[in-house]
Amino acid sequence: MVLGLAAPANAGATAPVCDAGLAQFPAVGKQVRVEIADDPAERAQGLMARRSLAPESGMLFIYDSPQTVSFWMKNTLIPLDMVFMDDRGVIRHIHPNAVPLDLTSVPGAAPDDPSPERLMVLEVAGGGAGRMGLQPGMAMAHPRLDQKRAAIPCG
């Protein structure tokens, strides 16, 4: 799939009213209730030691600026899908069903991605991204994105 940035699927529709506790994906009519991890300690802890994760909930990792990121599953007890997004909120890569307790690095971009920097990473329960219909090229609306650059700005 080419990751060109055409008009959002909801072009002409009312912009979503954003809430910091929700990651919204208007193209598929889904929202994820999120905990925010936006400082080094919160990002380091992530979802470690959790024994479950409610459907359509997760953790949104937010960086101060776009950067190359990778994750691992150290001390993480449940399988997770990792949804990597650029600074416009566009999904650039999805790593499905990361294996609990695995220390293998999970990169935020495919090796051939010409722009591997990510601003946000959404973790949801394993298989959740597929169940919600999330795909690379789709955009998320969230108030922590620069609304002048966001693929789907908040209303």
Number of domains: 1
CATH architecture: Sandwich
Measured distance between first and last alpha carbons: 29 Å
**Main beta-sheet annotation:** 6 strands, mixed
| Structural classification | mainly beta
Assign a percent range to the helix content.
Answer: under 10%
Strand tally is 8
Shape designation: globular
Count of individual helical segments: 2
The name of the CATH topology is Jelly Rolls
| CATH class identity | Mainly Beta
Mean pLDDT: 92
- SSE order: EEHEEEEEEH
CATH superfamily: Protein of unknown function DUF192
Strand content: 25-35%
Structure write-up:
It holds the Pfam family DUF192. The chain has 155 residues and is mainly β. The chain contains two helices and eight strands. It has a single domain (22-132), classed as Sandwich (Jelly Rolls). Helices cover 7% and strands 32% of the residues. The chain has a six-stranded mixed sheet with strand order 1-2-3-8-5-6. Strand 5 and strand 6 (91-98) form a beta hairpin. The longest helix is centred in the first third of the chain and has 6 residues, at 40-45. The chain is globular, with a radius of gyration of 14 Å. The two termini are 29 Å apart. 34% of the residues are buried. Residues 1-11 have low confidence and may be disordered.
List the helices and strands and how they pair.
Elements: E1 22-25, E2 30-37, H1 40-45, E3 57-67, E4 70-71, E5 80-85, E6 91-98, E7 106-107, E8 118-125, H2 128-132
Parallel strand pairs: 2-3
Antiparallel strand pairs: 1-2, 3-8, 4-7, 5-6, 5-8
Organism: Paracoccus aurantiacus
Protein name: DUF192 domain-containing protein
